[in-house]
């Protein structure tokens, strides 16, 4: 039997991987720099937790599992809708402006939740059923990877990579860049919401402090470390960056310093990330 | 009315601090097109330096006014050195890299300063010594204007006046404007681009250092993470004013400072942070180039 | 019926008039050359035709449909495709993927079904792949199909960009200085290539080109722009002798 602490870390890695892969769709493949992923995660977490706590009936095991699925999907859909709401106006903005606008939305989302007494406000939300287990988390991760992989490596999906390289050229071959950008944003937000739901039912406790700018940035760091435009990379980086701080616990005071230094050194030495734009399962494509 | 005036005074003193920080953002963005995320932490280092300089000067009942001058100067010098070090080590190698890479590096530097700050200064808040005795200077209606906000505003305005002079009337300032317009063209006509970028970091960081001390006067509780929100909001101020535009940073700073104070005074301080960002988003959507910025046409 | 009709088209940026009262009609299948010194307004004309800039005044109609208010992608769907002065391929995508993406409209399956692994998409994709390969082999670029487009030699990148534009199945193709930076052999190849797509595909082409040899040999009709004004129009011989044209080029006379 695996040590429960290690088991928990592994499950957290899985949630982080869902978050990183979904953010990669937006930041990496489509090149729309979002710094607000924790905001969508928060919506998914709180909505799914609310469904579980307030709506789900107390019945048998099967009913519980079905309601968990309903809770997760509600969280995902709520986050996706928020993604649509945020994406429609802001995706006209470019680069840094989009980054700061999405960051702003995440702050607003957090402050609104902080002022909602129904979900505990500043005290946080407790007693969320601990339903997220290995099957749920890694099953969801597999589905997320499969869907996003199908999407980005399809003929229509190449539009996302094209947009990240050159929006004017993309439009010149008849592609509505707005439509694709918003689509990527909504799908990314949807899976972030699902990830948030899994997180809520893993930790069983929610507090808005878990969804600050720092959390958004952790996911960005995963995407960049793994490679912008590499699903494989996001998964690997999510595991590394979730395990690393734990592994450094012995050096408690220094661990975050080491973490940030590693990030800087990595950017200076290997700015394309570990995998660049490659996937383990399509390794030889696009090689010269 | 009393609340309004009180919040207005509050807002103006916060606004001038935001403006000082925002200038650093705006200047760096002007020359490098980079959001220097570490800038807020430079401001934190300014406050911390001020704290230690003040301690060195001795804890007395009442400080002479020159103590304040020394503390501000000390913070400005340390921050200027820090700013130029950050530029040389972390940003210079990335000048030709994609902007996202530089942005991530900037955030990495920011984390580094925050966590190194926690290690060196301790995570607990410190209390900034009272360099200026708080007493009323004059009254407007029932509201007393006290020494501290007055000094904050005066010092900020003096520093911004000096900056304005440098940017508009010196060769260094002209060179900065040239680099902001086009680094390549500036290079071609013989502007020492590297040196100008360093000077930009020196000036911007020194102003952030001064802002750190000024905040210490007003809200004495300082800690290693104080730069995160203040930095973000100063950046918001820079964007609202029109990024790359120095007078814009000033206007944006006051805009954010005053509107935040009003929200705190009339609504609730929990909504304060959200409100600044709401303003930012509205401005970005309505007038993406900011209040004073110029609209640019993309070249095809 | 005219394929393209531009009437009194003016475009101003602040105080600068980039294009002034420009009027022009084009038949389908025509090969029209546009020449003029740097800054004459040639690329601006393309940017107006593809919806990147809106004209300050005047009207543009393509097959009797007004292009006003249309976004660049909508204009492409109407049947106008273009290349860019500074090649704008998707460098990280392979050559074949560049072309496939331009064929995206041949994929009827929606994105939702695609992301859930639709079989219908698999069939459509297969077909598209075959057509892309065909197109590439027709222009002898199939050897590069799986290489990132940024890794190709300059001349081949230009060709891929033209093929990508053609893959959107336009009826009007706008080529912005396709011969720029090419050597003599590459230019000769390019001329054959352009003639081929004009004749065999029946595609109307507007060609902006600095190389007089290329333009004069390819285009039966040439328009000369200078400072946003049309200063001459006609067959190569007439344009070449036109004193206004010679003056505009100020000694850079076309080599016979």
Query: What is the 3D shape of chain C?
Result: globular
Radius of gyration of chain A: 19 Å
Largest sheet of chain C: 6 strands, mixed
Order of helices and strands of chain C: EEEHEEHEHHHHEHEHEEHH
- Helicity level of chain A, as a percent range? over 70%
What's the end-to-end separation of chain C, in Å?
Answer: 35 Å
Radius of gyration of chain C: 19 Å
Instruction: State the low-pLDDT regions of chain C, or none.
Output: none
Give your account of this protein's structure.
The complex is a heterotrimer of chains A (288), B (300) and C (256). Chain A has 288 residues and is mainly α. Chain A has one domain. Chain A contains 11 helices and no strands. Chain A has helices at 4-29, 37-55, 61-90, 95-114, 134-152, 158-165, 167-172, 177-203, 213-226, 231-247, 252-269. The N and C termini of chain A lie far apart (46 Å). Chain B is mainly alpha-helical and 300 residues long. Chain B has a domain at 17-225. Chain B is built from 11 helices and 4 strands. Chain B has a two-stranded antiparallel ribbon with strand order 1-4. The N and C termini of chain B lie far apart (54 Å). Chain C has 256 residues and is an alpha/beta fold. Helices cover 39% and strands 23% of the residues of chain C. Chain C has 10 helices and 10 strands. Chain C has helices spanning 42-49, 72-78, 95-102, 111-115, 119-138, 154-167, 184-200, 212-218, 236-241, 243-249, and strands at 4-13, 16-26, 31-35, 57-62, 65-66, 80-82, 172-176, 204-208, 221-226, 229-234. In chain C, the strands form 2 sheets. In chain C, strands 6-7-8-3-9-10 form a 6-stranded mixed sheet, sandwiched between helices. In chain C, helix 3 (95-102) packs parallel to helix 6. The mean pLDDT of chain C is 92. The A-C interface holds A 146-148, 150-151, 154-159, 161-162, 165-166, 168-177, 183, 187, 229, 277, 285-288 and C 50, 52, 71-73, 76-77, 81-82, 84, 88-94, 97, 100-105, 107, 111, 114-117, 121, 125, 128, 146-148, 151, 164-165, 167-168.
